[in-house]
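User: quick one, sequence for these tokens?
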């Protein structure tokens, strides 16, 4: 049988472990989300004037063909 002291240490260690795990997961997803939004921000939106399709290309692309109908579109100006 565990004495109350050992029980408390076990609970404290378990709590720290869970906290550490959540902290790690939070950091991991936070960094992953930031990387995801960074790549999203580096993309620009194109709108196909022929078939009304919206698509994105990486920044620096001035003319991109539509993935649906291959019509070359110039970038949207905001
Ligand atoms: Zn199109």
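Assistant:
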């Amino acid at each position: 049988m565990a004495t109350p002291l050992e029980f408390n240490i076990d609970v404290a260690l378990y709590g720290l472990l869970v906290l550490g795990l959540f902290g790690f997961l939070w950091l991991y997803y936070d960094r992953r989300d930031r990387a995801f939004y960074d790549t999203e921000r580096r993309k620009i939106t194109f709108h196909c004037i022929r078939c009304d399709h919206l698509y994105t290309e990486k920044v620096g692309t001035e003319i991109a063909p539509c993935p649906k109908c291959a019509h070359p579109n110039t970038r949207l100006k905001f």
